[in-house]
Design goal:
75 residues, globular
């Protein structure tokens, strides 16, 4: 007992075009994080992004701003 596998904490492994809910509107946390990343990158966040589009933009802006993958190599 007590064994917990938190699969929800893992990043999505499916390409965004295969997401079942990818065409739904982006979530509040996605919008908030995108605003932060876009401000750092000097970009604007388009209105009405889908979850999949927001995820792709987050990945692109993380790469542009150096966020997101910093701690991945120190393991």
């Amino acid at each position: 007992m007590g064994t917990s596998l938190d699969m929800t904490d893992r990043p999505a492994e499916k390409p965004t075009e295969q997401w079942v809910t990818g065409d739904e509107p982006m979530t509040g946390p996605q919008a908030s994080y995108l605003e932060t990343l876009a401000r750092e990158a000097g970009e604007e966040v388009p209105d009405e992004l889908t979850k999949a589009q927001a995820s792709e933009m987050i990945e692109r802006l993380q790469a542009a701003t150096g966020r997101g993958e910093q701690g991945a190599e120190s393991g």
